[in-house]
FadR family transcriptional regulator
Amino acid sequence: MKLEVLTKSENKEVQKEIISKIRDLIDFKNLEPGDKLPSERMLSEKFGVSRSNLREAIQRLEFYGLLKSRPQSGTFIADIGPIAMKGMLKDILELETPDFKSLVETRILLELKTCRLAALRRTEEDLEHMKKALDAFSAKVNNGEDAVQEDLLFHLSIAKASGNSSMNTFMLIITPEIITNFEKYHVCDVNRAALGIQEHNDIFEAIKKQDPKLAKEKMKVHFKMLYQYCYNIE
Amino acid sequence: MKLEVLTKSENKEVQKEIISKIRDLIDFKNLEPGDKLPSERMLSEKFGVSRSNLREAIQRLEFYGLLKSRPQSGTFIADIGPIAMKGMLKDILELETPDFKSLVETRILLELKTCRLAALRRTEEDLEHMKKALDAFSAKVNNGEDAVQEDLLFHLSIAKASGNSSMNTFMLIITPEIITNFEKYHVCDVNRAALGIQEHNDIFEAIKKQDPKLAKEKMKVHFKMLYQYCYNIE
DNA sequence: CAAACCAAACTGGTTAACCAATTTAGCGAA
DNA sequence: TTCGCTAAATTGGTTAACCAGTTTGGTTTG
């Protein structure tokens, strides 16, 4: 008999099942902030899953700030009341992987903000960083080469200059997904790229002269085509 | 001789070192999309770290979409060119954990958008979900009890109704951090909570009548105090 | 000579054994 | 009875062994 191997998506489902079982446990035992969960060994046996799978699920819930595990001590409920815990677990379990439209929508939202913040907070070092990325982009485009990577790096340099590491993180998360989709669907063409140089320059200058309103305006212009695309794909 | 145990932050530093070593390897070997990395065993030996630590680092880079690992085959460079790869690795290594101000700033940005989107896209099911959360909040407040959890769940129900799973995910990530800080610094007091009922109601009604502009306006009102707080803590 | 094939080595994933710090329970002295 | 101390059990984390596909190189066969 051949043993069936689990695909990645199936494995993710397994993790969701474990999380829902943890939720049931928390619910049934009325666990409150600071309370200790049973040990990993015990839970893995009780749930009929491997300890490593269980650990992954716990680490996922740690990522969302719902659990805290202390070495040689145990895993504990974080400082979140039972009601919020239950609601958040429900939301996490119902989360679906973002579609392309959601990603683009979120990117636009984030970038219109990061460029404003960058205009307000950019340091001289940030400016240098952005200028470098800008020049690299222009050079590639003027050479007739594909410059998706350089485009991306310029936008990430703005995110960094925003001084908001939370938005910076989110930009880093969604960006790769977006550029692979861009390349797949050929959203950017070569003619656009030439226009892009001017648009990038405008954004850079606005940030340089610390004019947040203008920076946002120029970013909006830059996103005009993307914006239309985003609202036409469905 | 006593063996020094690694704290969590030190462990994170170890992971960063591994990632920087992976970056050096990619750089030195000029690895391009589709190229295979050396095996985990080989790398862990070469870097002088445990395989599990190395695996964690690889999984982190998988999370950011830079690497892809296939079972029984190997770990590969994702569809991201060398320039973007190098730039993103640099950004990831320089990422710092978000401070409270960044979190609040990001939350405000996200929620002003999610409530607009919710007004445009909410289903009847979403409305029910929101109404439930709203009633639970009101009940708690009218009882003179602390209602931070219910407040949180109402806002998350809006994020869900926005139909943008990317923003929904981000809200889930930053929310727990925020509420623990709120409780720590006592941002919310009881008098505010009573006012909060009316404000929540206004937001809900605006979303119900599918008026995105009004929804955003009411959310802004709701955030007024938070907004001031956010820009006064530094 | 080329294509089909087979076995050995290699790979990421999984499981089980191990470790050191922590907690706990029990014993003993005051 | 109470406080202090020690040793054993428990814990999350780590390391090493194992597994089942995949790849690869050489051999065989038509």
